[in-house]
Amino acid sequence: MIEAEARAEQAEQAYQDKLAARQEQIDRPRARPSGRRARPDFEPAVLARARRKADRARQVAVKRRAEWDGWEPRANMTDPDSAMMTSPHGWVQGYNAQLAVTDDGIILACRAVNDPTDVNQFIPAMTAACEAVDQINQQTSSHREINMVLADAGYLSEQNLTA
């Protein structure tokens, strides 16, 4: 807003200077002004555009100030490790939960991270799931393995597909 107002003031000053120079030229004896005569009631397009931009910037600033009234700080003083995350209800302060389960619902691994994107969480979740399967195999003297992985589009990257 300040830049738009400054440009409008500069355009206004340039217009006033031009009017003053023209009037000085007209007032000189035996000097005939050349070119078009400047009219004080005529507002050049540049000046009008600069004023419109400044008015629009002022309106946006007023609207934003009104939106900020009542805004509460979003920093979490009790849990600084948490981060802003999107949810179906807008933005919330929290964590991104990751869960690896078997097809029959046994939880192999779970993690809570402060990274709002899933793409960086696939390999750590799969590593934890593989370690859990290895522990299950050691404890039960069985041989289970992960044959298929199902993940949503949030995990899609070339690195994750390769892994």
Secondary-structure topology with pairs:
Layout: H1 2-27, H2 45-68, E1 83-87, E2 90-94, E3 96-101, E4 107-113, H3 122-140, H4 158-162
Antiparallel strand pairs: 1-2, 3-4
What tags apply to this protein structure?
4 helices; 45% helix; two-stranded antiparallel sheet; rod-shaped; 163 residues; alpha+beta
The count of DSSP E runs of length 2 or more, i.e. the number of strands, is: 4
Helix content: 40-55%
Largest beta-sheet characterization:
2 strands, antiparallel
Query: Unreliable segments (pLDDT under 50, ≥5 consecutive)?
Result: none
Element pattern in H and E: HHEEEEHH
Give the helix tally: 4
Overall 3D shape = rod-shaped
Distance between the termini: 50 Å
Radius of gyration: 34 Å
Briefly note the structural class of the backbone.
alpha+beta
